Amino acid sequence: MSSEKRTFQVQGIGCSACVARIESVLSKMAGILSARIDITTNQLLVEWDGAQTSPAAIRDAVEAIGYHLEGVEDTPSFPKPQSATHQAQGRLFLLLLGLIGAFVAWFLMLYYPRLQWSMWTQLAISLVVTYGMGFPIHRRAIRQAFHREMSMDTLICLSANTVFFYSLYGLYHNFTHLETAALPLFFDSSAMIVSILSFGKWLEERAKVRAADALAQLMELQPEEVEVLRNGHFVRERLTNLHKGDVLLCKTGQRLAVDGKVVEGQASVDQSNMTGESEPVFRKVGDTVYAGTVLMDGSLHVCAEQVGSATQLGQMIRFVQEAQTTKPKIQSLADRIAAIFVPIIIGLALITLVCWGLLWEGADAWRMGLIAAASVLSIACPCALGLATPTAVIAAVGTAARHHVLVKDAHGLQIAKDLRVMFFDKTGTLTRGKPAVVKYHWCVNEDEQPAVRDLLYTLEKKSGHSLAQSVIDWLRTGTMLPIKDYHIIPGKGMYCDYAGIRFSLGNLDYAKEQQVNLIPIHDLLRDWSEEGLTLTTLQQEGRLLLALAFSDTLREGLGNTLAELRELGVECHILSGDNAQATARVATESGIALTNISSGLLPSDKAEQVKAARLLDGKPQVVGMVGDGTNDSLAITAADVSFAMASGDDLSKSSAVFTLISQDLMAIPAIIRLSKRTMQIIKQNLFWALFYNLLALPIAAGALYVPFGLEMHPMISVIAMSISSLIVVTNSLRLRK
Fold first, then answer.
1. Whole-number Å distance between alpha carbons of 598 and 578
2. In sequence order, what DSSP letters do the residues of 597-666 get, joined into one string?
3. Could you give the CA distance from residue 72 to residue 45 in angstroms, rounded to a whole number?
4. Active-site residue (options: 153, 213, 259, 425)
5. Beta carbons within 10 angstroms of residue 96's beta carbon
6. Helices assigned H by DSSP within 403-521
7. What is the pTM of this model?
8. Active site residue 425
9. Which residue has the higher pLDDT, 404 or 684?
10. Which residues of 148-277 form beta strands (DSSP E)?
């Protein structure tokens, strides 16, 4: 199966009912693996089997139910975050004209209700606003009706047409029955419904774009054009035309567009957007630079190693995009309600009309029922309910991204607040991950040492272990040997064959498994272990060749991080594959209880401990894991909430819910607090959306007319509906602080 994943822009989405329908239709298509829409940006993330379907087929399925899909014919890229009516920002002038026209019609209806020129003017204004400005709404509603679908557009279309056609009847009655009392006209109401809704959606979209500004800010880190070496000259090229191996010129003040190696020049580079480092770093020939960073001075020629979505910046953008389409489980309630919301409201509107017409004794009972039904259609909208969760998630994901934490799954934001146990890997997580060889002991004579050094250099060059670079730095140089049968044993070490002889490198337990004679340096190894040093040995079958001792330093601010976690009710543990003494040293220096450490663990052992901790006295509890290496990936997968260091390998980062770009562990308690705040906001939003509709619907239906003589005009209904959505979005925006 050839799995493909891509983001498209959907035009025509009006509410969460639209989102639910599109996701439902796509999920039933053959070959679709997943389909998720972010309602705040109207971006559709689809994963499909390339052997069974294609972007064109996906577009056809979406357009068949009344929506338009953009980006199908383009090469895969990052569509700019925008909403279905984002282009309405350029229509602000027309929106304001529509509002002014609606208020003019309202003024004429109040002060000149019987004058012929006034009634004809109201009709003209209503026609222009209701069916001119409101044309997209009516078109979507009609197309959805042909496909037996309903959305917010359906409610607005029914409401506006109800009062407009009633007003047409009233206009005819008033001109043909001059001797009777004039019927009130509501041309102003149909114009108000469309114009206020359109302007309200414009304001809502502005607020939604603000909620998603973290993604926009990340995209702005990509320059649209760069200078690329072509046929010996630097020429301007669009970012989409870059390829691996291209040489780019970057000057002072410009942003780098690729991940690559410096091949000429030197400069200070501001990497704060990517790593959180406040101070610029110096880069010269041979150094690595990253897309999205800024040259503070000098100029660089950079050979592209990763371009587009493959760069670190591209991966960050993809992370944020995908996180914004994920849904915490709390949203399932809102989704279920939104899916049946519109049919229920239409049913309630019909009941309102019939009850007024049959039960009210007044002569204008059916007119009252018609206006009440239109008010019910206008005031009830699933928008607030549909926006309650995703706007909060978008704002939270954006806040995390601005603080250099990438969120993979919104469900992690929901449960992080309930963390009770946190497991930490030691090397590269609690420590800086840059251990140095501090002691060594040769077990061979000087004549053999050069060959042993080359063998060690070869093994470590092929290894991705955190200690490998430390050994290479200690050796400084070496020659790559033609080794064979190279294998890594996670949590233990590695082995290979060279010149027909088996060599192995690893920890003391692995050396003992290989039946290496450690007795000659037993006392030395014991002393090193008691000092808390990490030990590694190199052996030729059963013969010991070299022993190395490593030491690492704790991450800055670790003590404060652990103290904050304890204040949040999180119990901290260490899971390490290192020896007990080295693990105990880190625990003592960081303030973790010695009873909460486990050492000498294999990857599977770490995972088992994490799984076991998820049940306390038979009751589930939320458990977290922080790691950086391949040997942590099983434990990261086993945890409810997981964090990976950005310096770690791809496997750990792809498995984790959160990735710490700045490698600052203080982000962990910050994420827990953000989770608490996010869930508070979501619950407030859901309460408001549900409470609002429960309160507003009876009022719109006329519940206050009998006791107080108050009725809700459709114009007031549509204003109230727009305000409810704005309140939800504005409340979510508080998370940006």
1. 9
2. EE-S--HHHHHHHHHHHTEETTEE-EEEEEE-SGGGHHHHHHSSEEEEETTS-HHHHHH-SEEESS--TT
3. 12
4. 425
5. 13
6. 410-415, 449-462, 468-475, 508-513
7. 0.65
8. yes
9. 684
10. 225-230, 233-238, 247-250, 259-270
